Amino acid sequence: MSKANYFRYMAEFGSDAEREGAADNSLEAYKIAMETAEGGLSPTNMVRLGLALNFSIFNYGILKSTEER
Question: CA 40, 27, 60, 1 torsion: positive or negative?
């Protein structure tokens, strides 16, 4: 999750040249983290819930999307 958050912050606050690559890296890291969390953590696990929240913030704030990816 830290890797995904790092790239999310880079996409949010980085230069224009860094944003697209950082957003792509963040999306990939969030997808891997979500797959891992769904495979080993209960739906009510605090880490899994925090990951889902951060991923939704990324989708809305960086990708400007309200749909699941």
Answer: positive
Each residue's pLDDT, cut to its tens digit, for the chain (69 residues) gives: 689 999 999 999 989 888 999 999 999 999 999 999 999 999 999 999 999 999 999 999 999 887 765
Nearby residues of 8 by Cβ (< 8 Å), 6 or more positions away: 22, 23, 26, 54, 57, 58, 61, 62
Which is nearest to 68 in space by CA: 30, 13, 19, 40? 30
Q: What is the per-residue DSSP string for 43-67?
A: TT-HHHHHHHHHHHHHHHHTS---S
**Tokens 């929240």 -> residue:** 53
What's the pTM? 0.86
Reduced to 3 states (helix: H, G, I; strand: E, B; else coil), residue 69 is coil
